[in-house]
Design brief:
Helix content is about 35%, strand content about 20%. The protein is α/β, with parallel strands linked by helices. It has a single domain, classed as Peptidyl-tRNA hydrolase (Rossmann fold, 3-Layer(aba) Sandwich), CATH 3.40.50. It has a seven-stranded mixed sheet with strand order 2-3-4-1-5-7-6, sandwiched between helices. The longest helix is centred in the last third of the chain and has 24 residues.
Length: about 190
Amino acid sequence: MKYLIAGLGNYDVDYVDTRHNIGFDVVDELVQSLGIDFGPGHLAKVASGKYKGKQLTIIKPTTYMNLSGKAIRNFLVKDKIDIENLLVITDDLHIPYGSIRLRPNGTAGGHNGLQNIQDELQTNKYSRLRIGIGSSFPMGRQVDYVLGKWTAKEAFVRPQITKLASEAIIEFIMAGINPAMNRFNSSKVELHE
């Protein structure tokens, strides 16, 4: 079986260590845990390898996040990967910081990256792993918050969150979306005061 794991983010130095790039952080953790590396690819940095007999293609689109669908469609077609074996990892400000949520499908929910993927794939029936970034911002400051750097408290526990999310991806690959949801959707990493 072949799987495409796509972490969303903005591939520009200005976005490193921002909330919006948590998808990149998660796939970086996954790739490191698998002992493989990212290299250049068409529209994305790509890491390929096997895990317990499963062929994995892990990408970080080099388009801006809002155009990620083109890179994802490219790898699905090129590598002949079934859409049910696609998992997209992204930030979600509607989920509390430290929580993760897997879903087998759904709307874009106002997320322009997910909307572009839906437009490119002509469906919303693909699995996604949403990483909670919280919503601790004043009215009208959503963009600044999402594109902002982590607070010291958030940064301290971020490695635990990326590790948890990486484990959820492995569960998705080995057992499927429903077992992964059952195991990880109630998981939460707590902020320390």
